Amino acid sequence: MAAVGAAPADATMVPPDSGGKQMETVTQEPFVKKPSWVEIHYLLKVSYILISVFMERSAFFGMNVLLTLYFVRFHHWNENLSTAIYHAFIGSCYLYTIVGAMVADSWLGKYKATLVWYILYLLGFIFLLLSSLPFSRGQALPKLLIGVGLTLIAFAVGGIKPCTTAFFGDQFQEEHVEMRRKFFAVLYFLINLGVLISMCVTPVIKKDIECFGKDCYGLAFGASGAILLFSFIIFMSGQSRYVKSPPEGNMLVKVCKCIQFALSNRLRNRSRQIPKREHWLDWAAEQYPMQLIMEVKALMRMLVLYIPLPMFWALFDQQGLFVIKPDQVQILNPFLILILVPMFELGIYPLIKMCQINLTPIRKMVIGMVLAALAFTVAAVIEIQMHEVTEMTPLDYNKSYLQIINLARNEVQVTVQQGERDFLTSEPIGALQKSFHYYKLYLEGKHQSVRFVLKSQGATTEKYHDIKRRKWYSLVIYTAGANISNLLLEEMNAKPANGLAAVRFVNTLKKDIHIFLGSGDAIRIGKNYKFSDYQTMERGEYKQVRCKTWVGACTMDLGLLDFGAVYTVFILWGSRSILRVWKINTIPPNHLSILWQVPQYVLITAGEVMFSVTSFDFSYAEAPASMKSVLQSIAMMTVAMGNVIVLIIAEAGLLVQWAEFLLFACLLLGVCIVFSIMGYYYVPWAKAQQMVREEQEQQAQREQQQAQKEQQQEQWWEQQQQRRWEQQQHWKQKQQEQRARWQRQQKQWEQEQLEREKWQQQDGDREGEKPAPAQDREGGNLDLDKQ
Length: 787
Fold this sequence. Notes:
The chain crosses the membrane at residues 48-72, 84-103, 115-135, 141-162, 183-205, 217-236, 298-316, 331-352, 364-382, 550-573, 634-655, 661-683. One of its GO terms (molecular function) is symporter activity. Residues 686-752 form a coiled coil. InterPro entries: MFS_trans_sf, POT_fam. The protein is an alpha+beta fold and 787 residues long. The protein folds into four domains: 36-249, MFS general substrate transporter like domains (Growth Hormone, Chain: A, Up-down Bundle); 253-266 and 278-391 and 598-629 and 660-703, Growth Hormone, Chain: A (Up-down Bundle); 393-493, Sandwich (Immunoglobulin-like); 496-589, Immunoglobulin-like (Sandwich), CATH 2.60.40. The protein has 19 helices and 22 strands. β8 and β9 form a beta hairpin. The longest helix is centred in the C-terminal third of the chain and has 85 residues, at 685-769.
């Protein structure tokens, strides 16, 4: 309603002195909308949570990025054991989310539960810091400290993740849904900003500062712990502004009992004569309130809707398989998120809204899945192009490949014999040379013993080697005293993961040698053509690699180790301080430009923004008030389920990399279609509540109408009773009147009878006094007889 005295919006103003002439309407330019008091109010309220989550994520990823290196290089643990511990730790962080959510929703409440998890978090960092001090060196003590520390951190992270997200959503009122969605995007933005900063700063602290003569892991862990402490203090500082929802009791037990009673009650009432109910959970209505049944229905709908979601995370967690270096991958993803989140929130989403397109949360998540599938399709195309340029020829089922490397002083010719026939004869290979190509070896089974005959200057040497099919080998020929001998090395037949270079060392010296790669421990290689395992290294020039021989310290020049290349380095004697090496490239480096990999990262990150950010708000909005944290934890557990899918498919190793990419893309597209169909029939929580309210209103109206009808019937019955009573009273009155009239008539008749008798008596008395005439005595008095 317009204010009193105000002109309508479309009215033309006429000033008093204008002579009645209308003035031209002036259209004002649109102005930039300033933040409303509601936005400022929410910003002041949730700023404590935003800053604390930003710092908590910085602390976690600052520790997480160093964990595997800490196990391998500081405590000298086996690489496989270190990787297994790391993956178990990450899986536990997602697994314990359900425990944290149950504690928050059922017992302590979200705020108090978050404080408890923070305390466990800090204790875990203290144990981890103690494990990096010199006195903890050994076997049992560091494992105990690390085990306790990582367990506490896993519990804390699993508890904080759903609690802070749900507690963040609790600060917004129900009518400010759009405001809550925008602030969830800000939360996701700050999380990735913390990840980016920690991944850039923590490795620098570890590498540039030494503690006890080694990389300072303790300082890095201590810095992350200090950041976590500040996060804890900031979170507690805003307690006076927070909206703290009380816990709802042991909801998990209530939900389980409600489901159990509904199923058992349905089984007890299987008769066709009993009318069916709309939903199977409605069979719990005899014992549980309708509000709880509604919440359980919402939970079941969300659980069914979440079934396809792990496939998205299965693809997303494999972006490390793209060719960019690992540290670049870890930095590139949060960096792109920092760009794309504002772009979507301030540009793309408002533009779509202006086009009057209803982009619901489920539609956003579907588009995110499609973008992820496109990213892996692009990755498969790039992988195919890369293999055409750099990979070896694909192996046939019954073949193996062999190259010959001659370290002997003279020319050598090799003959491979199977049984009594010569299988192949190589061309003569000069000293310190290798064959120009790989020779094909045809095998009759999974493996076969093959005889190698070496001829050099009239001397012949024979040796048997066991050859397995579908493998790549290098036959190394070297001088052994006055004769020649040979060594069979199995080569890598695939490029190293994550764009790293792989190098293996062969020690041709007569003494052991120690090689120092990076800041890790030395690699010991035995004498007389012993060889090391493959070591993965980042791309770079390695001009002065430190080593140590029996005569003292030395260096060797490895040159450039390029992206995706595989090298075998033969260590030869040069001088006391500088060793000579012969580096053989068995798999060539990648030659595709790194710019070809940018589109797939943009697509997968855009898919993450549309999928992950939306799932935060969607999980909160669709959860009943008593299950906010539980549904957040279930949404986060889909990430762990995605990792399980990766392990099942990828670890089988049945497909090459590009085919595996295409398989995952096709699976995600299929899941996307299923998710779209499920989303089409999905009933949102607000709509379900509205439907229930309408049903309750209709039921109330029906009950009211029934009550009114019953009341009318009762009134009619009362009226009938009243009318019947009145009739009875009227009949009684009539009877009484008739009885009274009859009594009066009877009384009158009796009086008349008495009077007649009296009259007769009087007449008799008179007649007795006066004799009647004779005719009267004989015939009677006619007049008297008439009377």
